[in-house]
Design brief:
It is built from 14 helices and 17 strands. The chain is α/β, with parallel strands linked by helices. The protein has two domains: 133 residues, Aspartate Aminotransferase, domain 1 (Alpha-Beta Complex), CATH 3.90.1150; 256 residues, Aspartate Aminotransferase, domain 2, CATH 3.40.640.10. The structure holds ligand 7TS.
Length: 410
């Protein structure tokens, strides 16, 4: 096993990771899949913005307004480069992944889909990539086909091919599962979708923060992700879409900034990306998302990914040592840094609560993936997830904590 960088060095960049919990135990943060911690540089960027340049964007010509607009637009360019988008005009700021997917479902979906059309979803989606499509389907009468998850926690691609034979209009799929950690073969799935004339919408909430993502190389149509899972603040996310698709879509929300001109009974739509950015956006947060991109680029996304691969391989090895413990999903080589597990005879919430006494933060529940849990006949799992700031030592503390859980429950 090789360590790509010293996670303990990286940890020092994150103020929250220095704190104690329960008075005197150091925090072991293993809940990045829910939200990541933020490095000092991102926090300083937010504070600097609100202390110095706070103004609305695209409106004023005074110094502060110009600084705010320049910062907001330069972050857009950085984010575009981070995912190899052909143009910054294709980067739409949203509140988060959820809003980005709702934007596609409501704008692209309502403009392009008709009653009786089919769409393909998967059994491993987060609710954010299920419910917006279910709402649209109920509203306009779509048929939904589901790609099931096989016993190894991977998508059944033979069923995918059968669904494609029915010529769906859209395939909506996660790049990486937030429960099983499964990394889906998006590039191949995109090629197949396009051969059948379908558009492919990728929920990249768990991939963009953890690995190099090149939207052109993946050959996809829409990609959604959130700043708060990639060292950035809450309140801002991104929808990337191919220019010609975005350009042909009607606005999602109406109001300021998304118009070129307004008449009493009509309006002219603004150009991309502003067409989809109605109202005052999360300006400081968007600028700080740019700082998060700078931070991650400084470490190198290849390094982040390889580090997480090392940590998750080690974690799986150690977890599987524990009698009565089951880890769900594929082998380490096919997953990112996520491990959802159950322990015989102990409710996942109890696992989380006992680990918390020793400062170990893991999430318990259905992780907004109820259908996936049902597929395994589970109502909940405990989940430990890893990022660039987690070390082998964190995994050892988790394992020690789990032995303690076993002891408590006899
Ligand atoms: N898609 C995936 C794959 C996710 O993991 C999440 C959040 C979302 C979409 C929604 O992101 P949001 O920023 O719009 O809320 N996942 C989790 C989780 O696993 N635990 O808490 C949030």
């Amino acid at each position: 096993m090789t360590i790509r960088f010293d996670a303990n060095e990286i940890k020092r960049d994150f103020p929250a990771l220095q704190r104690m919990v329960n008075e005197d135990v150091p925090l072991v943060y293993l809940d990045t899949t829910a939200t990541s911690q933020k490095p000092k540089k991102v926090l300083e960027c937010l504070s600097y913005y609100y202390s110095n340049s706070n103004a609305n964007v695209h409106r004023g010509i005074h110094t502060l307004a110009e600084e705010a607009t320049a910062g907001y637009e330069s972050a857009r360019t950085k984010i575009g480069e981070f995912i190899s988008a052909p143009s910054a005009k294709e980067i739409i700021y949203t509140r988060n992944t959820t809003e980005a997917i709702n934007l596609v479902a409501n704008s692209w979906g309502r403009a392009n889909l008709r009653s009786g059309d089919r769409i393909v979803l998967t059994e491993m989606e987060h609710h954010s990539n299920l419910v917006p499509w279910q709402m649209l389907a109920a509203s306009i009468g779509l048929e939904i086909d589901i790609i099931p998850v096989d016993d190894n926690g991977c998508l059944d691609l033979e069923v995918y091919e059968k669904h494609l034979d029915k010529n769906p209009k859209a395939v909506c799929v996660t790049h990486m599962s937030n429960v099983l950690g499964t990394l889906n073969p998006i590039k191949e799935m995109a090629t197949q979708a396009h051969e059948h004339g379908a558009v492919i919408v990728v929920d990249a909430a768990q991939s963009v923060p953890h690995m190099p993502v090149d939207v052109q190389d993946l050959g996809v149509d829409f990609v959604a992700f959130s700043a708060h899972k990639m060292c950035g603040p809450t309140g801002v996310g991104v929808l990337w879409g191919r220019y010609e698709l975005l350009d042909g879509m009607p606005p999602f929300l109406g109001g300021g900034d998304m118009i070129k001109r307004v008449y009493l009974r009509d309006f002219d739509t603004n150009e991309l990306p502003y067409k989809f950015e109605a109202g005052t956006p999360a300006i400081g947060e968007a600028i700080a998302m740019g700082a998060a991109v700078d931070y991650l680029k400084g470490v190198g996304m290849e390094n982040v990914w390889e580090h997480e691969q090392d940590i998750v391989s080690y974690a799986m090895e150690r977890l599987e040592e524990i009698p009565g413990l089951t880890v769900y999903g594929p082998e380490a080589e096919k997953r990112g840094g996520v491990t959802a597990f159950t322990l015989d005879g102990v409710h996942p919430h109890d696992i989380s609560q006992i680990l918390d006494v020793d400062g170990i933060a893991v999430r318990a529940g259905h992780h907004c993936a109820m259908p996936l849990h049902e597929r395994y006949s589970l109502v909940a799992t405990a989940r430990a997830s890893f990022y660039l700031y987690n070390s082998y030592d964190d995994v050892d503390k988790l394992i020690k904590g789990l032995y303690k859980v076993k002891q408590v429950f006899g």
